[in-house]
């Protein structure tokens, strides 16, 4: 049985800015966007989040929610340096690290370098090292698989530490709202609610074939995951290469229908390139660059590989429609796929595996 830790930095960009600039500390802060209402928020501090300000929200909407909101331009070079330091801390305990972004990663500490043995103790030490060496806080989730560890890291933010052991996984997932399940976006959650699925316990009433009928390949993932079945290993050599397409527009776009049209075009290009490459992918990323040149990305990873252009198109549109754009002008859109099939291939969780 694996020992998995998911580390997620707390309001990463905003926390770095508050650390480096005393005038931002304790105040509602948005990284990205501008006080004149243009652009979008990339990350909001916890002081701003209390007012409902969140990432991908228009500056105009953020100011309506929080009139005293401060804005600062993102410094990605600094964030990358901090991220590299965090990785050196991880490496003290294990080489099996799967970064998901600059501010989060999975660690497999089943066999830790220092012989500590307890994944919970390792998570505590990592959090303390990040605090002492970088003056930042991180939240950690600890469990026996990636899915549960990732959910656990979000339960007590900021500066949280949550352990969900094997004997508690099934009950925990049964009580969990489906909106909190990794891979369930707004569109999928709405469809589940229409089917009477509000918690993991509700989801378990559906057979595997019923889940596949309603949700396609994702249905198979949901069927297994709500039963605590997740065999995916932490991949230290996680593939970062991608196949994609993007387009900068002659005139900035703001109407949702125009944006949908462009996403459909890009999805077709991506599928054709993926098909010609002979590879299979299961992660899709939508890139949005705004008129003020700030940008955001949103990704979704499926359990199975994409099998059609329509599937890529549907997921890209779902990512677009989940953004709170408020008719903000957009100068560029991009769609990429990644997380390619390895030579060994990836297997679905074993339906017979029990983690309790």
TrEMBL record:
Spell out the catalytic residues. 104
**Enzyme class, one word?**
transferase
* Residues annotated as binding Mg(2+): 8, 103
Q: Which cofactor does it need?
A: Mg(2+)
One example of the protein's molecular function in GO is: DNA-directed DNA polymerase activity
Q: Which residues form a coiled coil?
A: none
Q: Which UniProt keywords apply?
A: Cytoplasm, DNA damage, DNA repair, DNA replication, DNA-binding, DNA-directed DNA polymerase, Magnesium, Metal-binding, Mutator protein, Nucleotidyltransferase, Transferase
Question: EC no.?
Answer: 2.7.7.7
Co-factor: note? Binds 2 magnesium ions per subunit.
Which residue numbers mark the site Substrate discrimination? 13
Q: Pfam families recorded for this chain? A: IMS (PF00817), IMS_C (PF11799), IMS_HHH (PF11798)
Domain (UmuC): give its ranges: 4-185
| Entries under CDD domains matching the protein | PolY_Pol_IV_kappa (cd03586)
Q: Which InterPro entries match?
A: DNA/RNA_pol_sf, DNA_pol_Y-fam_lit_finger_sf, DNA_pol_Y-fam_little_finger, DNA_polymerase-Y, DNApol_IV, PolY_HhH_motif, Rev_trsase/Diguanyl_cyclase, UmuC
Cellular location(s): Cytoplasm
The entry's function note states:
Poorly processive, error-prone DNA polymerase involved in untargeted mutagenesis. Copies undamaged DNA at stalled replication forks, which arise in vivo from mismatched or misaligned primer ends. These misaligned primers can be extended by PolIV. Exhibits no 3'-5' exonuclease (proofreading) activity. May be involved in translesional synthesis, in conjunction with the beta clamp from PolIII.
Q: Which family does it belong to?
A: Belongs to the DNA polymerase type-Y family.
* PANTHER family, alphabetized: DNA POLYMERASE KAPPA, DNA REPAIR POLYMERASE UMUC / TRANSFERASE FAMILY MEMBER
Subunit comment? Monomer.
Q: What's the protein name?
A: DNA polymerase IV
């Amino acid at each position: 049985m694996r020992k998995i830790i998911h580390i997620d930095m707390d309001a990463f960009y905003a926390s770095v800015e508050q650390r480096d600039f005393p005038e931002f500390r304790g105040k509602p802060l948005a990284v990205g966007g501008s006080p004149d209402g243009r652009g979008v928020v990339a990350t909001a501090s916890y002081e701003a989040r209390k007012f409902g300000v969140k990432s991908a929200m228009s500056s105009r909407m953020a100011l309506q929610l929080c009139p005293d909101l401060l804005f600062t331009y993102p410094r990605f070079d600094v964030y990358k340096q901090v991220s590299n330091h965090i990785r050196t801390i991880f490496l003290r305990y294990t080489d099996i690290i799967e970064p998901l972004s600059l501010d989060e990663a999975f660690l497999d500490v089943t066999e830790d370098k220092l012989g500590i043995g307890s994944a919970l103790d390792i998570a505590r030490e990592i959090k303390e090292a990040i605090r002492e060496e970088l003056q930042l806080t991180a939240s950690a989730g600890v469990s026996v698989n990636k899915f549960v560890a990732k959910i656990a890291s979000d339960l007590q933010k900021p500066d949280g530490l949550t352990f969900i052991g094997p004997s508690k996984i099934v009950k925990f997932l049964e009580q969990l709202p489906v909106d909190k399940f990794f891979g369930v976006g707004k569109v999928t959650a709405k469809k589940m609610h229409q089917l009477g699925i509000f918690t993991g316990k509700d989801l378990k009433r559906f057979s595997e074939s019923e889940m596949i009928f309603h949700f396609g390949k994702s249905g198979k993932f949901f069927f297994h995951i709500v039963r605590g079945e997740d065999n995916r290993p932490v991949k230290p050599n996680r593939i970062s290469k991608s196949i994609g397409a993007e387009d900068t527009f002659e005139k900035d776009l703001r109407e949702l229908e125009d944006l949908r049209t462009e996403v459909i075009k890009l999805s077709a290009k991506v599928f054709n390139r993926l098909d010609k490459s002979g590879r299979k992918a299961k992660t899709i990323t939508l890139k949005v660059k705004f008129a003020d040149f700030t940008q955001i990305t949103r990704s979704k990873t499926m359990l199975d590989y994409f099998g059609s252009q329509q599937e890529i198109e549907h997921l890209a549109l779902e990512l677009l429609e989940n953004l709170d754009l408020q008719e903000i002008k957009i100068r560029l859109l991009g769609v990429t796929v990644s997380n390619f099939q390895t030579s060994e291939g990836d297997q679905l969780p074993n339906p017979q595996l029990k983690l309790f």
